[in-house]
Structure formats: C-alpha cells, structure tokens
Amino acid sequence: MNPRPDPRQLATPGDGIAKGDVLLDVRNVSLAFGGVKAITDISLNVLKGEIRAIIGPNGAGKTSMLNVINGFYTPQQGTIVFRGKERRSMKPHQAVGQGIARTFQNVALFKGMSTLDNIMAGRSVLMKRNIGWQMLWHGPALREEIEHREKVEEIIDFLEIQHIRRTPVGKLPYGLQKRVELGRALAMEPTLLLLDEPMAGMNLEEKEDMSRFIIDVNQQRGTTIALIEHDMGVVMDLSDRVVVLDYGKKIADGTPDEVKGNQDVIDAYLGVPH
Ligand SMILES: Nc1ncnc2c1ncn2[C@@H]1O[C@H](COP(=O)(O)OP(=O)(O)OP(=O)(O)O)[C@@H](O)[C@H]1O
C-alpha cells in the first residue's frame, strides 16, 4: 500500500502568479450603509505568499473590507482585482470558485455535525458532480468522492484533529471549533484565505496553537492569508505587512515595525480625537 502523502508537503494549486506579486488589489473602495460610511476610498493590496493583517479600533471597517473582498458586499465605488481579474460585485460562492475562502468572527459551523462532515461541507463547493451522479454512484462520481475524502483526511492530519473527527463540533472547546472552521476553509483549497479574528475568545495556549497553524498553512501549503486580529502581539509576530484602518479610512500601511511606530496609529489606538 502506498503511504499517505505528507500533508505538510502539499501546496495550493498554481495560479500563474509568482510569489511576491500582487494577488489581490483593492482599488479606491468606498462602502456606506445609508449614512454610515464603513469604508472611504481605501486602496490596499495583498501579495502572493504573504500574511497580511488588517487592524484598527472597533468600527474601523475591517470586517466590511473582508466582506467586500469575498463578495458579501458590493462597494458603491472602487474595484477589486483578484488574480488579474477586475470586478466590483461577485457572489460569495463565485469568490470561493475563484479561490477566496474565509472564516468568521464568530464560529459559523454546523454544530450538530461532526468535524469530518463540517470539513466535507467545505469541500462540497468544489464537487463537480451533482446529487444524481452521486446517487447513481457511477465511476466518475465515486472517484471524485474518494479524491475529496482524501483531501479532507489530509487537512484533518495537517490540523492534528484526528481525535475529534467524529465529535459534533458543538461539543468541542472553542479553540478547537476555530480550528475546525479553519479546516473547512482549507477544504476549499483557497489561494487567498481570509481570517476574521482567528484568535478571538481564545486562551493563550489556544492562540499559540492557532498561530502555529496559520504559519504552517502559509509556509507549507503556500496559501496567502489576510487576517483581522485585535491581539497586537499576534499581529506583529505573524504578519509580513499590516494595514491600519480608522473610521473607515486607511491611516497606515507597512511592516509591523513601521506601523508600530506610526503616530497616527498610536493616536487611533489611544482614542486621540481627530
Ligand atoms: N450591515 C451593516 N449595516 C449598517 N452598518 C454597518 C453594517 N456593517 C457594518 N456597519 C457599520 O460600518 C462601520 C464599520 O463596521 P465594521 O464591522 O466593518 O468594523 P470593524 O473594524 O470590523 O469593527 P470590529 O473590530 O468592532 O469588528 C461601523 O460603523 C458599523 O456600525
């Protein structure tokens, strides 16, 4: 029998964009809800292969930005260029089809379903054959099912969650639920993975574990990551570059060290009026 491939050696499928080139380009995006300006004329990019953080005080527009990137919201102005294709509006399932997956601020899993089934559910967006095919259990559908199952098993190994594969996720501690949610996003084999507060509500040990998995996903699977996170220690340790939003505007963009020393950023976090 062939040994199972080492999941740590697996890479995200190639997309023709070289490491370090612009993968995602957000151009002059503005988004308002009625009179509330959530995002005002923000441009930022994410380079292939990097870990990019989006930070800022509460209400700065971070989650709105992720929602624009993955198609939940259509901005009133500006465009998004992903893998060289420009668009203003796109449905979330189309974003997944193009290689953008995300996790949510509050875990959004099927609580009564097992870890395995939740991750399979993430995989299902990539399944080509329809239910009729699956029921007929014809060769192509069977082969596809087996391939998907293998990918899911690799992810379960990768995230070290073998021991909870059959456990309904609602019964898991919060830190593990977050890890399963990461697994479900990975099952979509994203080129760009968006993580909305991956450490929220975690204790120190859980944060350390999650940080390690984020780095492993980036380095060993080659996945580009954009994340929102409030824990500054984590952000500064993990990220290659950080963009800072405040009241819907971009106030800084650079390496963790550059951003840390930026007076506008310090003022925003201290709540200095402007
Ligand atoms: N669906 C919505 N309807 C109306 N206003 C919204 C909606 N989503 C966001 N907003 C408003 O847009 C602004 C930016 O919100 P957003 O959630 O993007 O900020 P955030 O930086 O992610 O905040 P937090 O760190 O608290 O999650 C806020 O004033 C918020 O109240």
TrEMBL record:
InterPro entries, A to Z: AAA+_ATPase, ABC_AA/LPS_Transport, ABC_transporter-like_ATP-bd, BCA_ABC_TP_C, P-loop_NTPase
All residue ranges annotated as the ABC transporter domain in the record: 24-272
GO MF: ATP binding; ATP hydrolysis activity
UniProtKB keywords: ATP-binding, Nucleotide-binding, Transport
UniProt xrefs under Pfam families: ABC_tran, BCA_ABC_TP_C
Gene3D superfamilies given in the database record: P-loop containing nucleotide triphosphate hydrolases
UniProt keyword Transcription regulation, yes or no: no
Cellular component aspect of the GO annotation: plasma membrane
Protein name (record): High-affinity branched-chain amino acid transport ATP-binding protein BraF
Organism the protein comes from: Nitratireductor pacificus pht-3B
